[in-house]
Structures are given as C-alpha cells and as structure tokens.
Write a structure and sequence with these properties.
Layout lengths: L1 H20 L5 E4 L4 E4 L8 E5 L4 E9 L2 E6 L2 E6 L7 H67 L2 H103 L5 H96 L4 H130 L5 H69 L3 E7 L4 E6 L2 E4 L2 E8 L2 E8 L5 E2 L8 E6 L4 E5 L5 E2 L3 E6 L2 H8 L3 E7 L4 E4 L7 H5 L5
Antiparallel strand pairs: 1-4, 2-3, 4-5, 5-6, 7-8, 8-10, 9-10, 10-11, 11-16, 12-15, 13-14, 13-17, 17-18
Helix pairs in contact: 1-2, 1-4, 2-3, 5-6
Length: 705
C-alpha cells in the first residue's frame, strides 16, 4: 500500500512540476509551403483552416512527433514541421520537449523498478509464510504423535486398539491436511514464479527504454555538436570577411598612392598618417565593442546558469519534500503493518487454540467437514469461474484474430482485385496493341504483295524485253544474212564487170561492219542480263526483310509485357509483421528513377517515408533549420511536391535523403508522372530533368498502402 502511495505521490509531483514548468511560447515564423491546420495532433483530425506559402504564423508549443501548435489568424491548431520555416527558438522548444520526455521516461523506469522490487519482496514474504506454516504443521503432527504414544502406553489393550484406530484416523487427516498444505505451497510457488516473470518483463522493458534514451541522447549530442560547428563556421566566415575587407581597403590605398604625383608625397604621407591613426582608433573601438559583446554574453550566460540552478534547486526541494512525505507515509504504513501483523499473530494464536479445542471435541468434526466441503466447493466454483473467464478470453482473442484475418483477407481481396484490374487493363492494352500490329502487319503484307506483283510485272516486262531483243537480234542476223547473200549475189554479178579484188575488199568491209553490230548487240544483252539479276537480288532482300519484321514485332510485344509486369509487381527488401507490437514494416527495393538516382518507399506502422539515393556528393543531408536539406518534385501537370530531410544527419559520397511522406503528398504524386527533380544538400544542388521511370509513385505507392 505504501509503495502505491509513494508512486502516486511521485506521479502527482512530476505532473505538477510539468504543468507549472510549461509556459506557452510566442515564436514568429512563416509557412514553407501550402497546407492545412488540424484541430488536434492526430492524423485523422478535423481540418480547421488552410494556409499558403510564406504566410505568417506564431508557434506556441512543440508536442512531439514533428508536430507544432500554431496560431494563424483567429485559428489555433496543429501542423507538421515540414510546413514551417524552423528557427533556433523552435529548435529550443524541440530540445526542451525531448528533455521532458527523457525525464518522464526515467521516472517511469524508476516506478517500474520499484514496482517489480515490491512484487519480488511480497513473493518472498508469501514463500516464508508458506514455509512457516509447513513447519508448524509438521511440529503439530509430531506433538500429536508423541501424545498418542503416551496415551497408548497408559490405556489397556481395548483402549489401545480404539486409540490406535483413532490415531490412525487422525494421522490420515493430518496427512490430508499436509497434502493440502503442500498443494497450496505449490500454488503459491507458481504464483511467485509468474510474478518473477512479470518482473523480468518489466526489467527488459526498462532496459529497452534505457537504450532508447541513450540513442536519443546521442542524437541530441550530435545536434548540439552540429549547432556548435555551425556557430564556429559563422564566426570563421565573419573573420575571413573582415580580412578580405581589410585586404580590399589596402589594395585601394595602394592604387591611390600609385596615381598620386611625386609633388604630393608629403601630403600623402600626412594623409597616410591620419588614416593610420583613424584605423588604429577604429580597431581599438572594434576591440572595445568585441570585449563589451563578450562581457554581455558572459553576463547572459551567467544569468541563464543562475536561472537554471534556481530551477534545479526548486525542483530538488520539491523532490526532497515529496521524498520526505513519502518516507513519512512509509513509516506510518510500516507501523500500521506491524499493528496488523500483531493482530494477525494474536488471531492466529486464537485460531490455533480453537483448532486444538476442535481436535479434542469430536462433536465439532462434522462442522469442520462441512466447512471443508464448502471451501472445496468455493474453490471448485472459483476454478470454474477462472476457466470460464479463460475460455471467454480465448473466445475474445479468437474473435479478434478472426476479425484481423477477415480484415487481412479483405485487404488481400482488394489487392487481388486491383492486380486483376491492372492485369486486365494491361491485357486489354496488349490486345489493342496486337490488333494494331495485326492491322499494320496486314497492311504491310498487302503492300509486300503489291511490291511482289510489281516486281513480277517488272520481271515479266524484262523477260518480254529480252525476248524482243532476241527477236530483234534474230531479225538482224536474218537481215544481215540476207544482206550478205544479196552482197554475194551483187558481187557475183559485179564480178562480171569489176575485178575480184575490189569485190573481196568490199565484202571484208561489210563483214567488219556486221561484226561491230554483233558486238553492240552482245553488249546490250549482257547489260540487260545484269539489270535483271540486280532486280532479282533486290526482290529477294525485300522478301527477307518482310519475313524478319514479325519476329522484331513479337520481341517488342514480349518486352512490353515484361515491362508491364515489372510495373504492376511489388519488390520488397523487408515485409514483416511484428505480432508483439502489432506493427507491419515494409521497405521496397531501390528503383532507378534517373541516371545515378534511385528511390525507395518505407513504412513502419502508420508512419510512411520516402528515401532518395544520389550517387553524387552534395554534402550532408541535414535536418538542422539553418541548412535543412530539401527535394522538390515537379509533375507533368505542373504541380510541385516539397520534401524536407527528417532523419539523422548523413554525409558521404552518396547523398542519402530521407523524408516523411504524407497522405496529401501521396495523392498529389499519384495524379501525374514526374517531370523533374531538384535535390539540395549542404554543399550543392542537383537538377535532374531527364526522368527514366516517370510513373514510379503511380505504380509503387500501392506497395505500402
């Protein structure tokens, strides 16, 4: 009882300190993109207002889970940090909230440890009580046994026989009582074992929370270190800027000196002296201002430290007061327990006396048996009730399991229907494509047949022309032969009037002319043969090309089907369901979006993220407000979707960008393919205008829904 009072008191003190320690902030900032304000911090909350980019608002609190409470016009609601320009004051709210959560986790862990220790202590006390009762029962049995032996020695044989029968009956009853005591001890031991297991589970949970706390502290240290490095970088840049300014002034002075005439040397020296004195005076003034600034910062730091020490002192006094009150309550409880224990001891002695009297009086045996019977019936009734409760629990679990299974089957059915619709759509597209290709193929076949017909007609015309040429040749040969016969005839006739030599000379000249004509005819025939051969060769090539076109078209159809299958299927690196925490974790494989850029989708419970990996060095992917990394996606319908890095700081040759994916962003990304992507790191920016897989979000968001 004291332990529970102490725990309740600690919780009340912690809650009171938290309420009075929290003060509503008043931090001015702007919205980073268009969005909505929700009535509460839950995801399915009511929308109370909408805002546009760069509109002003006031941040009043940070509630965890990347959620801020804001005032916008006359509305007070909740928005995620990705819709706000996060400044240093907002980061202070974040760190204060994390510190409160850490303290709360420590208090809860202490309470669980104290509770588990109290369980162990109570179990040990029960075990000692059971052992003491067992020893008392054994001592009592031995005492009764010795008493019966003495009585047997005093009585005669008949009395001895009766007493022996009675003694055996008493021994049997004592054995039954001992067996019941042992059963009760076993039951108590099982209960203690169960409590120990519960305490072990509590210890494991406390260990897990401690590890989470260590991880969170490491993240906070990294954030503070990054903030310190940023301040050092700013200081270094200011010093370099001052050095560059001084150097520029010196160069201007040198240029002025070069332009001056020799006659003004004395005047220049005087001006230089005056300038030097002014610079020294300015340097002294700057040094004085710097010292004043340092002194002011030291005073502010001391004031903050004093304020923190005062708050710690107040908190410590409150804790000490609570501890003293708890200690007083504990002492009162101990005193009360001691009184209760004395009363219980007196009651136990009284019950022992009554039990001794009951054993001596046989008349009360029937009453005791009746009480035992009632107790047994009560235990049986309790066992039946426990069994009924267990069956009801099992039935409830079975119903919940059946409901979950029905829900899972419904989701599988929806997924199957979506897959079937996508497959039917792809099949319909494929059939349309095949029909279109068949029409094109038929058109090509008709065209090919027409070409073949033309080629056949051309070949027939060529053959006809060749036949005509042969006929012409034959006619020419016949004409030449007839002319030769006529010449011979003329020669024979002329021989009558001229000399034989002249006739032969004329005949030879005519023969030469005939040979020349024959050679020309042979050349024409050879040329026509070559043209015919070329025509036949081109016809064969056209036929082969037309035969190879269906094979290429079939390959294109197969490639298209494979592409559609790849787009419709989900490929996972992780797809697990944790039954203990009732959480589903999914992580898709890396899909290539463009050259050197891949994307993954990640879901754990109700939280959804998108990961982009660029094989270029853009510096670090940072979540710090003054250098927060971002990614902008422009869709083909000219809508833009902004992402901000929300995981740990990651640096390296590969730019790992990780952002939260909201339902509004999902709806926007499903509405149109990707047009371009812009990635921004701490050292540079990358514009990607050529996108290979434009339908990535349209195809793959269903894999994590």
């Amino acid at each position: 009882m004291v332990k529970y009072l102490y725990l309740s008191l600690l919780l009340f003190v912690s809650f009171t300190v938290q309420i009075f320690g929290q003060e509503e902030a008043n931090i001015s900032t702007k919205f980073s993109q268009d969005g909505k304000i929700y009535k509460s911090e839950s995801n399915g909350s009511e929308i109370i207002a909408e805002f546009n980019e760069n509109q002003k608002c006031v941040v009043t609190a940070f509630l965890g889970n990347f959620t801020y409470k804001v005032k916008y016009k006359d509305f007070v609601g909740f928005v995620k940090d990705q819709y706000l320009f996060v400044n240093e004051q907002m980061m202070d709210l974040y760190f204060d909230h994390e510190e409160e959560q850490r303290e709360k986790a420590i208090q809860e862990r202490k309470q669980r440890q104290e509770k588990s220790q109290s369980y162990v202590k109570e179990a040990q006390e029960k075990l000692q009580q059971i052992e003491q009762r067992r020893l008392d029962s054994i001592a009592k049995i031995e005492e009764i046994k010795q008493r019966k032996i003495l009585e047997n020695k005093r009585n005669d044989s008949i009395v001895k026989a009766a007493q022996e029968a009675k003694r055996q009956h008493e021994i049997l009853k004592q054995k039954e009582a001992q067996a019941r005591a042992e059963e009760e001890a076993k039951r108590q031991l099982l209960e203690i074992q169960r409590q120990k297991e519960a305490a072990a589970k509590e210890a494991l949970e406390a260990k897990r929370l401690l590890e989470l706390k260590k991880h969170k502290e490491a993240e906070e240290k990294a954030a503070l270190e990054a903030k310190r490095q940023l301040e050092l970088q700013k200081q270094k840049e200011a010093e370099e800027k001052a050095e560059l300014q001084a150097k520029r002034q010196l160069e201007l002075q040198k240029q002025k000196e070069a332009e001056e005439k020799a006659a003004l040397e004395a005047k220049r020296q005087l001006e230089l002296q005056k300038q030097k004195e002014a610079e020294e005076k300015a340097a002294l003034e700057a040094k004085r201002q710097l010292e004043l600034q340092k002194q002011k910062e030291a005073e502010e730091k001391a004031a903050l430290e004093a304020k923190r020490q005062l708050e710690l002192k107040k908190q410590k006094e409150a804790e000490e007061k609570a501890a003293l009150e708890a200690k007083r309550q504990l002492e009162l409880q101990k005193q009360k327990e001691a009184e209760e224990k004395a009363a219980i001891e007196a009651k136990r002695q009284q019950e022992l006396q009554k039990q001794k009297e009951a054993e001596e009086k046989a008349a009360l045996e029937a009453k005791r048996k009746l009480e035992l019977q009632k107790q047994k019936e009560a235990e049986e009734k309790a066992a039946i009730e426990a069994k009924r409760q267990l069956e009801l629990q099992k039935q409830k679990e079975a119903e919940e399991k059946a409901a979950l299974e029905a829900k899972r089957q419904l989701e599988l059915k929806k997924q199957k229907e979506a897959d079937e619709k996508a497959a039917l759509k792809a099949k319909r597209k494929l059939e349309i494509q095949k029909q279109k290709e068949a029409e094109e193929k038929a058109e090509l076949e008709a065209k090919r047949q027409l070409e073949l017909q033309k080629q056949k007609e051309t070949a027939a015309a060529s053959d006809l022309e060749t036949e005509k040429q042969l006929e012409t040749k034959k006619r020419r040969e016949s004409a030449i032969k007839a002319e030769r016969d006529a010449i011979r005839k003329q020669v024979n006739e002329a021989s009558k009037y001229n000399s034989i030599a002249k006739a032969r000379e004329k005949e030879e000249q005519q023969l030469i002319e005939l040979r020349r004509q024959n050679d020309s005819i042979a050349k024409m025939i050879e040329k026509e043969r070559q043209e015919l051969e070329g025509l036949r060769r081109s016809t064969a090539l056209a036929q082969n090309a037309m035969n190879s076109e269906p094979e290429e078209q079939d390959a294109e159809v197969i490639a298209l089907a494979e592409r559609m299958k790849y787009r419709n299927e989900c490929h996972y690196q992780i797809n697990d369901y944790d039954r203990f925490y009732n959480i589903t974790t999914k992580r898709t494989e890396e899909y290539s979006i463009s050259n050197k850029l891949t994307a993954e989708l990640y879901q754990q419970g109700v939280k959804t993220n998108v990961f982009f990996n660029l094989s270029e060095d853009l510096g670090c992917a940072s979540y710090l407000p003054n250098q927060r990394s971002s990614l902008k996606i422009t869709l083909e319908n000219n809508r833009t979707v902004m992402f901000y890095h929300s995981w740990d700081i990651e640096c390296g040759e590969i730019f790992h960008f990780k952002a939260i994916l909201t339902n509004d962003q999902k709806s926007a990304l499903k509405s149109s393919p990707i047009k371009s992507i812009v990635l921004k790191g701490t050292k540079g920016t990358k514009d990607i205008n050529f996108i290979e897989y434009k339908e990535f979000f349209i195809d793959k968001l269903k894999c994590i829904d």
